[in-house]
Write a structure and sequence with these properties.
This protein has one domain: Rossmann fold (3-Layer(aba) Sandwich), CATH 3.40.50.970. The chain has four helices and three strands. The protein is globular. The chain starts with a helix and ends with a helix.
Amino acid sequence: MTGNEVVAWAALAAKAEIMYGYPITPQNEIMHYWTRQAPKFNRRFLQTEDELSAGFTTVGGVLAGLKAFTATAGPGNTLMQEPCQWQKL
């Protein structure tokens, strides 16, 4: 089992309901593993057009009451900080 698979299993164990994600290496494995396991556990996935959208949809999902998460790689982490700033408003 890889570390990325552990992340996906941990999200399932935490009862995450949805993952919002954009395919970027190395987090692709988390997204791919989640999408294979999610239907078995009645969970969902939404692929976004970029990291910024993944961040905003995750914040929106949490604000709507969902247990939502996302994952990213190093460069995407910088882009995902912008949605977090909006959440503080």
